[in-house]
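FYI - complex with nicotinamide-adenine-dinucleotide, inputs then prediction.
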Amino acid sequence: MAGTAPHPETRFIYQAQPARVVFGAGRLSEARAEAARLGVSRALVLSTPQQAADAERVAELLGPVAAGCFTGAAMHTPLEVTAAGMQAARRLSADGLVSIGGGSTVGLGKAIAMRTGMAHLAIPTTYAGSEVTPILGETENGIKTTRRAPGILPATVLYDPELTIGLPPGLSATSGLNAIAHAVEALYAPDVNPVVAHFARQGIAGLGAALPAILRDPADIGARTRALLGSWMCGTCLGSTAMALHHKLCHVLGGSFGLPHAETHAVILPHVVAYNRAAAPAAMADIAQALGAGEAAEGLYDLARTLRAPASLREIGLGQEDIAAAAALAAADPYANPSPVTQEGLVGLLRRAWEGAPPPGA
Ligand code: NAD
């Protein structure tokens, strides 16, 4: 859909998302009280196999409120993993869920909560932002479908920046750029409002400043705190507004070509912003200002280079011969977008992104 992006301050609808957010270094120790506050007396703790030690630690903190752990969470929430998690919940007579991890683990918590009605306390350890959205993406036989419903939103989110100290610098960078992408697309969304626009600007500015500091010193708790705060704000943008071309392209590249989630966001973002430059001037000015850059797309490209994030689709696994098919898929069923989405335009965008070239100049 073409058109000039609306100004968020002049005409809007604001719908609050009813979640409780508990934020601060060391607050993981409050997990038991937060679970109890949700009426949970036997919590199933969820994680990936890689974060089994984190799940054990949470179970210990929960004490008698922990029913046990299920550590099988996997990328893109496969239905068979959800079924195994639900079986574990039944076997352990669990009456609530505590997820600790990135978007994959929070996704598993959402999938089980949606099917059982159990309360869900999410403890995020990346910057992906899933914990504050009512959105769930699931895969069955390799096909990913996405749904949005109020019951998917976790009831409480506990953000403890100390849990992100161990997030490797590379994943911190790409995950942070993934978060920034949510805020960028919110700023030119047709349903943006003043609250979300404020979160978007603050989120971009916070992550834009904190991520380079994290790269210099991954144990910098001040920078980790600012980044996690930014990721909450950016995640809220994703949960509150319609996403556009950037998220569509990343969905296609991840879902149909198997590209890694956060890295794909990191490569694509500056190119989509350049594509939308002329049709969303107010958003571009906000993004540039939040980054302290002369221009939005260039500022995002430079930030990604500072963070040593992957620059090209080539290096993260897209074949050159797949460019045309990816463009056709994204153009066939586009999300609403400030600039008209054409297959030809997308081929040009993806070619540059594949090569790792900077976005076209302003
Ligand atoms: P992830 O959850 O897949 O985590 C990647 C790896 O990093 C995992 O092995 C994980 O255990 C590990 N890890 C996470 N935090 C760590 C930490 N602090 N220290 C050490 N290791 C850590 O990655 P992600 O990028 O957070 O999530 C991606 C998934 O989330 C995708 O499936 C994506 O579609 C989904 N997602 C959904 C939404 C939504 O609103 N529904 C939003 C964003 C992302």
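The chain has a mean pLDDT of 95. The pocket of nicotinamide-adenine-dinucleotide is lined by residues 48, 50-51, 75-76, 101-105, 107, 125-126, 128-130, 133, 135-137, 163-164, 166-167, 171, 175, 238, 261-262 (CB under 6 Å).
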